[in-house]
Structure formats: C-alpha cells, structure tokens
Amino acid sequence: MSTQTNSRARVKQDTVGENGIKFLFSQYQSATLEGFRVICKSLIEESSGKRTTKDKFIYELDRATSKDVMVTKVTNYLMAGQGLASDSIFLYYERY
C-alpha cells in the first residue's frame, strides 16, 4: 500500500457529477429565475463538498441576478468536484 507523497489534497469524486450538470442544463431554458435558483442550490447541497464551500456558493447564488451567473457558478463548483478546471465549462456546454 502506498501513501500520498505530498500534502496536496486529493480530488474526491463528487456525488452529483455529470448527471447533475446535464440536469442543470436541461432546466436552464424552462425554469424561472427563482425556480432555477432552487435547482442550483439543491445540486450544491446534494454534492459531497465541504459545508463552508457549499455555504459560500449558496450565498453567491442568492446574490445572482441572472441564470447565466448561476449556471456558471454551479457548473464550476460541480466540475471542480470532478477534478476539472473551471475553464472547462465552455467545452462542456458546447458538447451538450
């Protein structure tokens, strides 16, 4: 059994993952602003992130004035849980 060779945190696979992102984009067009906010917050709550990180993103979602801002924040949050860079949102969005 090997041990970790450095103190950098290991990426933990998020429990929401790709299905959560697909659901997020499927709801983008039809949901109202407040309805989409609820969807975004529930995806973050269902994820396996730390409570302090979740609270920070939920606070930012409460202040968001558009669905574009919310979808970017939630996608970045979920993709970080998958170990992907936040710039990947554009590649993912074009794919689906």
Shape: globular
What can be said about the biggest beta sheet?
A: none
How many helices?
5
Mean pLDDT: 78
How would you explain this protein's 3D organization?
- This protein has 96 residues and is mostly helical.
- The chain has one domain (17-95).
- It is built from five helices and no strands.
- Helix 1 runs antiparallel to helix 2 and helix 2 (33-46) runs parallel beside helix 4.
- The radius of gyration is 14 Å and the shape is globular.
- The N and C termini lie far apart (40 Å).
- Residues 85-96 have low confidence and may be disordered.
Summarize the entry for a quick read:
With 96 residues, the chain is mainly alpha-helical. 65% of the residues lie in helices and 0% in strands.
Descriptive terms for the model:
single chain, 96 residues, mainly alpha, 5 helices, 0% strand, globular, disordered C terminus
How is the secondary structure organized here?
Layout lengths: L16 H12 L4 H14 L4 H13 L3 H15 L6 H8 L1
